[in-house]
Structures are given as structure tokens and as C-alpha cells.
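Write out this protein's structure.
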Amino acid sequence: MDVIDREKRTLIASWPITLAKTNVAMAYDEASHRLFIACRSGGIVALDTQSGKELSVLLITKGVDDLVFDAASKRLYASCDGDVSVYQQASADSCKLLGKVPTGPLARTALLVPQLNRYFVAVPQNGTTNAEIQVFEVH
């Protein structure tokens, strides 16, 4: 993970990600200085943005494509191949798995719309099953 000063266009720091492999999506909790890095190998690495230290890895299904942190509810949503993992942040250093919600094969693209209390998941056509958008109510 490289940290860049956007105004000066210079590299400030490089932080290795070792607890999981093939990072594809990130979500930031600014209040707690936590960067969540979703990796296709089946983990979300929680990183302290003040020190660059890896703090923990949250287990998810392999094949993640989308990750979002909702600051209002302190929830983390990871859309993976076939399910969405939902974590509740109890503190800056503690997240608890609330559950895994089945979606469909290869369903990885998602969008949280907090104003509507909805989480949308795109499920592609697979075999004889038509493509669809699944809509989940979030609390």
C-alpha cells in the first residue's frame, strides 16, 4: 500500500500487505483511522492509517470485488463471489461478523445507498438463471 501526497505528487510511505493477497477494494473509516483492504484470497486486512501497521484480517469468501464502510452504522459490507459478508465495528480494533447473505454465483458488484437504507447487488446471468439486481434493506 503506497501513501502519496497528492499536492506534491510524492510518495510518503509504503506499507506492505501480508495478511491476505490480491487486494482489489478498499474502504476507509476516517474517524478511527482504519483502512479496510479487501483481498481476493478471502480476507479484509484492517490497517492503522497513522502507523501503517496491519492490525487484523477479517475472513470473507474468496473472490471479493466490492467493499464499503458505512460510517453511520459502523458496518462493513464485502460483496464476494456468491455472498455478502457483513461486519459490525464494535471499536476501532474490533469487528464482529454479523453474517453472510447469499446472493448468487459471480455476484460481486454492489452499491450501498445509505439514504435509501438499501444495498444493491448485481447478479450476472449464469446458466439458465437470468441476471438480476438484488435489493437488501439495511438497518
